[in-house]
Amino acid sequence: MRGDFPLLKGFAGFRPAWLRSDITAGLAIATVAIPSAIAYPALAGLPPEVGIYASLFPLIGYALFGPSRRLIVGPDAGTMTVLAAVLTSMSATSTADRVVAAALLALIVGVLCLLAGRLRLGVVATFLSRPILIGFMSGIALSILVGQIGRFTGLRIEADGFVPPILELLRRADEIHAPSLALGGVLFALLLLLGRWKFVVPGPLVVIIVATAASALLDFQGMGIQVVGAVPADLPGLSLPFEPHFSLRETLLGAAAVWLVSFGSGIVAARSFGARGGFEVDANAELTGLGAANIASGLFSGFPVTVSDSRTAVNLSVGGRSQLAGLVAALTLAAMLLYLNDALRILPVPALAAILAAAALSLVDPRAFRELWRISKMEFGFAVISLWGALTLGVLNGVMVAVAATLAYVLLKEMRPRDALLGRIPGRPGFYKLHRTPAARPVAGLAVCMIQGSLLFFNVDYVRERLKSLAQEQPKGTRWFVLDASAIAQVDSTAAAMLDEVRADLAEHGMALGIAELHNEPMTILKQAGVLDRIGTAMVFDDLEDMALAFGRSAA
Question: 434 in helix, strand or coil?
Answer without folding.
Answer: coil
